[in-house]
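Usage

Read records sequentially. Each one opens with the input sequence:
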Amino acid sequence: MILMVGILADPVICYFMDYCMDSKVDFAFVDVNLLGQEIFFDQTHWFIPNSPPLAHKSITGVFNRVLFSWANYHELQKDLLIRLFNWMDTIYPKVLNRPKSTYSNLSKPLQLQWASAFSFWEIPDSWIVSFNKIRVEDPCICKSISSSRSIVNNVYYQQHLKIYEPALVQEHLNGLNIRLHICDQSYTATAIESSSVDYRYNKIDNHYFDYHDLPLDLVHGAIEFANRIGLVFCGIDLIFSKGRYYFLEANPSPGYSYFESQLSHHQISSSLVNYLGGRVR
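and closes with the structure output:
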C-alpha cells in the first residue's frame, strides 16, 4: 500500500493518484489540510474518512508532497505534522523523499558547490549578489538563491541592475534544456526545445522529447550525486551548451507530471510505483 501525503490542490499528487487508479495500484491519500479535523493517526493506524483503519505496517512506501508553509495551522495540526515528518524520516521503510532530505535545495549555491565535486558536468560561472548595483559585461541570468520559485530573467549586456535581496547571477548559456528525473537507480531524460530563457513560462512553442544521448558516466554520476545529498527521487536540470553538459540545480520535489504529460509513456510514474512497493489489485 502506497501512502500519498499532500493537498488536493497539488497537480503532481493528483496526476500520480490518477496513474495509480488507472494502473489499479493500491494507495491511500492523506490530505494534510484535514489533519486534526477529519484525519488522524496514532502509533499503529491511520484513521481516514470512509476507509477502514490503515495499519502503518501495511504501508510499503510514502509519496511525500508536503511542500507548503503551515504556519497558519492550528496547534493540533502542527503537532500531527511534526509527528508525521518524524515518521517519514525514521519509521516508514521508503519515502520519496524524506523531509530531512528535501532541504538540500534551500540554498542553490550550496547545491552548486556539492555538484562541483563531480567532473562529468560543468558548473556555470556564478555570483551571489545582494544590496548592490552591478554592471554586467556579458549576458547573464538572474534567479532566486533559495528553493522559492522565481522566473529566471535575462540581465542584458551593458545593463545596470539594482539587486536588493540575495540573488544568484550566472552566465547565460544558450543550448538544449534537459530534465533528468532519477528514482533510485531508474532515470528518464527529457529534452526541452524552447525560444524562452525560462521554458516553464512559455509553453506555447516548447517541444519536448525523450533524450537518449546522455553519456552513461554522467547518468551514473548523477545517481551518485542524488544519493550523496539524500534524494532518492529528484529532477536535475541540465543544459547542453558549447559541447558540454552544465548542472543548474536538483529539485527534491520535482513536478514530474509537467514533463511526463508531454510524452507518450509513464516511465517516471512507473518507477515511483516500483520503488514504493505498489501492489496491483
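Summary fields computed downstream for this record:
- The chain has a mean pLDDT of 89.
- Residues 126-171 form one domain.
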